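Entry 12.
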Amino acid sequence: MRHTFAVNLRWRNTRAFDGELVREYSHEGFATIPGHAALVTSAAPDFGGDPNLWNPEELLMTAIAQCHLLSFLYIANRDGIDIVDYIDEVEGSMDFSGGTGAMHSVTLKPVVVTEADPAVIAAMHDEAKGMCVMRQSVNFPIIVAGDVQRPEPTVN
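Predicted 3D structure (tokens):
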């Protein structure tokens, strides 16, 4: 079954041409989807963008991490495994030279808080790798270096 998705991306130059040979231009874009809050984007700071706005590399890493999380949670729900918390610190690297580049790798470092056996959680991450559409859509390695923690005891 095919699913389709649509995003509207708008850019408008907010900087005036000053007559110099090298002209500046805005790096901000506005992504909108009906029913969603607008997302203001920019280039990464190393490429002249605003460090306070989302850049394409961060959005790609977020999509991969979110996809892995949702696949993982689907497996946990299917298998009746209680997950208390899931925190992922994602890192990505990009090679860039000669005016072009590509993401080199993305590393997910999820910390899963659960009573489940760490070996079961590792197997769930492995299964989630195969289910994640974003992972299947890129041609660079996505590494999962996860950890499992026990939940804090509840005080009654």
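Annotation: Residues 56-79 form the longest helix (24 residues). Residues 1-54 form one domain.
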